[in-house]
Amino acid sequence: MFAKRIERLTSSLVRDILAAASRPGVISFAGGLPAEEALYRPDPAQLQSLQHCWQYGQTEGEPQLREAIAAEARALGIACDASQVLVLSGSQQGIDLVSKLFIEEGTRVLVEAPAYLAAVQSFRLFGADFLPVTVDPVTGPDAQSFKSALDSAQLAYLTPTFQNPSGYCYPAEQREHIAAAVDAAGVPLFEDDPYRELAFDGAAPQPIVGRLKNAPWVYQGSFSKTLAPGLRLGFLVAHPALVPHLTRLKQAADLHSNRLSQHLILQALQNGLHEHVAQILPVYRERRDAMADALTRHLGDLVSWQKPVGGLFFWVRFKQAVDTHALMRRALEAGVAIMPGDAFYTTTPEHSCLRLNFSHSSPAEIEEGMARLASLLR
Ligand SMILES: Cc1ncc(COP(=O)(O)O)c(C=O)c1O
């Protein structure tokens, strides 16, 4: 009855765990939820000025918002104009559109290992064969492994800035090498960049796509982590040759993104998005430091980890093999939600890992959750 690809549609572990994690009293380190205190809450008076938003709009997005996004992208070193911008219904939609544009059964897709699991889920649905490249939490992807995967890839998907889940941020020099390798191979590069603004110890290097000379590219970002995920808005900027195809795919998917959200975000950009982010960063920094302290005190001898310089996650590697799914179930019984690391791999990983989100819980909850986790492990 169903299309063949439905057999490849695995249930998302994230959604299952998030459902359990939202039970009252559960301390959640599982999802990628921004801090409740950091969510952008527009003044209700602003809604009065949005009376023109109830009619259908343009597939590509509201013209002023596209202009503003293009200006931000140019400031990041991406040569583009507003005609290359597509406003998305969440950057997850960009993953869906890029999957539809490039992937059919057997398309070889280079992915980081570990990689953002909802991207892997979408690529798999469309029939991708994966070419995983290990991302070391300290040194990132090995140049030789990257190059040999690229040699047979038909699409490369990277999250080089505060990667979900590893937190790794590619330094400028590594970005240069990757751009040169992508150009040499002529493989389309899909760069996913939702965490760039959440930089705790200085700005991240400019995106890889701006360093390309000839390879086709799609760059995408999100307003979920800086403003509010409930607005469901992201954007992509693409090589001019790809824009008409992506626009038609978006038209077929949802006609256009929510106009109210687009205008609320435009107002936020005009009022200074960067100032809003500067105000919320201390909340994140405090929580990150609280998790680093709690990890050291409670699990210091059992795990290794890097303190993330941006993004929302700690990537924690056990020194000895641990059944992280059994741990997840027992932790939930103890009122703590965690995310097993193997969910982020397309093949069986070498190490037992966890992804722990630090943004959603208060410092006191982080301490309590880590203490409960430690007592389960000991
Ligand atoms: C790497 C990455 N890409 C895309 C998304 C989707 O974000 P949204 O649809 O909220 O913009 C996420 C969400 O966590 C993510 O981590």
UniProtKB/TrEMBL annotation:
Annotated protein name in UniProt: Putative 8-amino-7-oxononanoate synthase
TM stretches of this protein: none
Gene Ontology annotations of biological process type: alpha-amino acid metabolic process
UniProt superkingdom: Bacteria
SUPFAM superfamilies linked: PLP-dependent transferases
Chain ranges of the Aminotransferase class I/classII large domain: 48-373
Taxonomic placement: Bacteria, Pseudomonadati, Pseudomonadota, Betaproteobacteria, Neisseriales
Gene3D superfamilies linked: Aspartate Aminotransferase, domain 1, Type I PLP-dependent aspartate aminotransferase-like (Major domain)
